[in-house]
Design a protein that fits this description.
Layout lengths: L4 H30 L9 H28 L9 E2 L4 E2 L2 H25 L6 H19 L7 H23 L7 H25 L13 H39 L2 H19 L1
Length: 276
Amino acid sequence: MMGSFKGHALPGTFFFIMGTWWAIKSILKYTCRKQKRTSYLISKALFYRMELLEGITIICMAVIGILGEQFIVGGPHLSLYNYKEGQWVQLLGWHHCTMYFFFGLVGVTNILCSTISSLPASLTKLMMSNALFVEAFIFYNHTHGREMLDIFVHQLLVLAILVTGFIAFMELFTRGNITVELLRSSFILLQANWFWQIGFVLYPPSGGPAWDATDHDNIMFLTICFCWHYALTFIIIGIIYAFVTWLVKSRINRFSPSEVGLLKNVEREQESEEEM
């Protein structure tokens, strides 16, 4: 499935959704820490439900990706080796399934860390960095024997994945740093955009001819295009930052001091119930 436009658009869409969501979550947490009264509007229970929903969403995306790779027309259908013909079956599809599987483990870890208090919250970041390093390793060994242009666009993808993995690993030691979190979100969005770009370059959806794989000018343009995609991620995050901060401040201004006091008492009652 990955060897088509839809096969590149699907992970690109998944990464775009998660990159956008992680940017929203990081900015929301940062805004709540800066605005004291937001603690009465956004409770810990809400963030807890958000973590659970995030984990479930990641698992669902991974399952969809694996099923799409395995059961499309001509897919391996869970067969790894054909003993009659003596050859492997659709190893590129198994590459992609392995990538989805490790991201599915990230979702499982997210749910476990949210429900089991004895597990460290940083375990999710560790699993995220592991999934990204596995993805980079898979795509690095993904293009042997292909055309120059095909290899080049995947090399840029590996670069984005590796940087994202290192940033996710840094988060183990810089917990709660919004700059590092947004940097990770920006590279996740870059990876998403580049999956779409690879689809347009190698498998044009209009049905027209693919780009000339031997033209060096195409590589020169894609180098610039990669930088433009990265600049676009900052614009997206800037829009998200402005919208989230405006939304939080507007909700604060809607509440009068008496309503804030009432919310404070309700929150204290909920916290005491949770402690009991």
